[in-house]
Design brief:
169 residues, mainly alpha, elongated
């Protein structure tokens, strides 16, 4: 094998270790993570390079918010897991954009309040007669301003990809 002849053992060992520790970093897309995964795959021992071993290692390295949508992915190939992860990543990005837009609207509304009103939720720190701003009121009622009404991953879509692939295998 080419790797055995031309690449020193120490480098191969380092690459194997890098592969085993590989995780999708903050700001790294699924595609970037997948490319890095593929580059390091060639250093993995052939005994570990099974369909299940590689798929499980691939999913284990994905970001938590993407991984949580892939509960049924143990029955599919790595390429199907990749497609599901891409779709989930797209949904996450759209949800972040929606949250940012809602925050911008909320921010504009807050700036129209008078200077006597404050964000403080503690009664002793609020001026007499001042009222809580909408964002503080939401926090006090237990609804975090950055929370969403539903999970941002489209679990049903991921399940349909997985079911479709299971039927065609």
């Amino acid at each position: 094998m080419f790797l055995d002849e031309y690449i020193p053992d120490s480098i191969r060992d380092d690459k194997r270790e890098e592969f085993m520790k590989l995780k999708q970093e903050w700001g790294q897309t699924v595609t970037e993570y997948t490319e890095q995964f593929k580059k390091l795959c060639k250093y993995v021992d052939p005994a570990y390079r099974t369909v299940t071993g590689m798929r499980d290692r691939y999913i284990r390295g994905l970001k938590a918010e993407i991984k949580k949508c892939m509960g049924e992915a143990e029955r599919v190939s790595q390429s199907i897991a990749y497609r599901a992860a891409l779709h989930t990543e797209k949904d996450e990005k759209m949800a972040q954009e929606e949250r940012a837009a809602r925050f911008d609207v909320r921010k504009r509304k807050e700036s129209t309040y008078s200077g006597s009103q404050t964000l403080s939720t503690h009664p002793s720190k609020r001026g007499p007669g001042s009222t809580l701003l909408p964002i503080a009121r939401q926090t006090l009622t237990g609804v975090h301003p950055r929370s969403t009404r539903h999970s941002t991953c489209s679990v049903n879509f991921v399940r349909s990809i997985i079911r479709g692939s299971a039927g065609s295998s």
